[in-house]
Each structure stands twice: as structure tokens, then as C-alpha cells.
Amino acid sequence: MPLATTRRAGLVDQVIDQLREAVTAGEWPIGHRIPTEPELSAQLGVGRNTVREAVRALAHTGILEVRQGDGTYVRATSEVSGAIRRLCGTELREVLHVRRLLEVEGARLAATARTEEDLAELRVLLNRRDTDWDEGRLDDFARSDAEFHQVVVRCGHNGLLLELYRGLMEAITASVASTSDNPEHAEMIRHRELVDAIETRDAGRAADEAAGFLDELIARAQGW
């Protein structure tokens, strides 16, 4: 396996990056058992504790799965797909309900408190999100859509609301990915009207736009 010897600074982060790259590049396919801790330690030139911490971190994201007495296996190719595997059914509906609580008020505040710089950033992120969708980059789409919604909340300039939202970003990104597998539905949710409402400082319409698409997702989730 072509893993590079790591530098001393930030060893755990470097090992995480290299293990993740081995997965995303197909070096270790899903279901594959990765080399043992001593083998990785020798290949990377780092201590076993460093390898153990890196593996634990990737297991937490859902990319790896540690099976006691058996070894460590590849479970997903990215943090997004790993999160999707953990987010379904009742849990997904709960995330969508919490998103609704935060994002509706976030959109309302954004329409009243946004700056011109905020609006410009929203437009950039909206275009990135739409491009990711149009070009079929679904993992990137999940991330860019979640980032777009985070910036909508940030435009309201309520620090506590933003911190609450940031704390849920992994679950929010997973919920986007979990609900974007229907091309017709995802095509309908373009968020242009939401940004237009924020631009014109129409707080009521911004809140309605945020509530509308989430109500649609919640209704669909009832049958998943």
C-alpha cells in the first residue's frame, strides 16, 4: 500500500488523511479488512497509539468499523456516506424536525439582519450547491447544501443559534444526503426563492420558504 511516511507534526491528523485517502482511492474497498495496527504502524513510521487514535476517529465518522477480535473493516467511502448509514427512519425525521426549528427562525432573522457581504456569500454558495447537483457530485452537494443552510443561519447574526446549528452539522449533512436521492424532488428545491426573500428583507416569506421544503422532506420521511 503506497502510504507515505508521516512527519512528526500533527501525526494523528496525517494518519487520518492517509487512511481516508486509501479508502477513497479504492486501495481498500468497502468490506475490506485493513492492515493490522502493527502493520500500519510499521508502514507509516508512527507509534501504535497514533494509529489507534486515527482508526478510532475514522470509526467515529463511519468510514471504518472496528470488530473486536476480528479486525477493522471499511464501512463507507466518505464521512457523508458513513453518516447516511447511521441516519435513517425515526432518527432522520427527528433531525429534519430540529432543522425546521432552527432554519425557519434562522431564515427569518437572516432577512432582517443580513448584510450585503452576507448576501454575496449566499449567492456564491447557492451557485456552488446547484453546480454540484447539476454535475452529479452528490457527496459534494450534501456538503455544499448543508454549508448554504449554515450561512443562512449565520446571516441572522445570532451567535447562539449559529453555535447550535454548527453542533449539528454532521447530522444535517447526512440528512441532506439521505433525502437527495430523488432527482425530481431535489430538482424542485433550488432555494432561489429563499435567497430572494432574504435579499428583499421579507422575513415572513423567508421563513415560509425555509419551512416549505422541510415540511415536504418531513412528509416524505414518514414513508421511509
From TrEMBL:
Claim: DNA-binding is one of the keywords in the record: yes
A Pfam family per the record: GntR
Domain HTH gntR-type positions: 9-77
Coiled coil: none
PROSITE patterns reported in the protein's UniProt record: HTH_GNTR
Family annotation (CDD domains): WHTH_GntR
Family annotation (SMART domains): FCD, HTH_GNTR
Protein name: FadR family transcriptional regulator
